[in-house]
Design a protein that fits this description.
globular, alpha+beta, six-stranded mixed sheet, about 150 residues
C-alpha cells in the first residue's frame, strides 16, 4: 500500500509540473499514466477549431502506453481554471473509463472528491455494474489476461 501512495503522489507531482510548464497562464490540464513496469507517460489535450473532435487529456498518455505494449496500472487527470486557481482531479469520463478497461478492472484512477484530496479507486469500484459483466471474460479483448 505504501508503494501505491508513492506512485500516486509522483503522478500528481508530474501532472502539476507539466501544467505549470505547458500552461504558465490561464487554464491548464495534464494527465499521467503509470505502467506496470514503472514508466510514467504524460499528455495534454489537443485543442482544435472544432471542439467536437477534441480528445480527452488522458488519451495521449494511454496511446503511449499502448504503443510500448505495457500494462497501465494508474491514470490521473489534473486541471486548474487559471494560474491562480487550485489544482483539481477529474474523474475519467465514461469514454476514457472504457479505454482504460483494456488493461483490466484493477486499473486505479484518480477521482474527484468533495474536499479535493488525492484519491484513487479501481475501475471496478468506479463502475461495479459495468456492461461487460454480462459477458464471459474470454469474449472480451483485454491486455493479457483479465483480472
Amino acid at each position: 500500500m505504501k508503494q501505491e501512495k508513492i506512485i500516486e503522489q509522483e503522478m500528481y507531482h508530474r501532472a502539476i509540473e507539466l501544467i505549470q510548464k505547458r500552461y504558465p497562464k490561464g487554464w491548464g490540464g495534464a494527465a499521467v499514466v503509470h505502467s506496470e513496469d514503472g514508466q510514467y507517460f504524460t499528455s495534454v489535450s489537443i485543442k482544435t477549431a472544432n471542439s467536437s473532435v477534441d480528445l480527452c487529456i488522458e488519451v495521449g498518455a494511454m496511446c503511449e502506453a499502448h504503443k510500448y505494449n505495457v500494462r497501465v496500472t494508474h491514470c490521473l487527470c489534473v486541471v486548474r481554471d487559471d494560474e491562480n486557481s487550485p489544482f483539481k482531479v477529474l474523474t475519467p469520463c465514461g469514454v476514457c473509463q472504457e479505454r482504460l478497461r483494456f488493461w483490466g478492472t484493477s486499473v486505479k484512477v484518480g477521482v474527484t472528491t468533495q474536499d479535493n484530496t488525492l484519491k484513487f479507486v479501481t475501475l471496478n469500484e468506479l463502475q461495479p455494474y459495468h456492461w461487460t459483466n454480462a459477458y464471459p471474460p474470454e469474449e472480451l479483448e483485454y491486455f493479457g489476461k483479465r483480472d
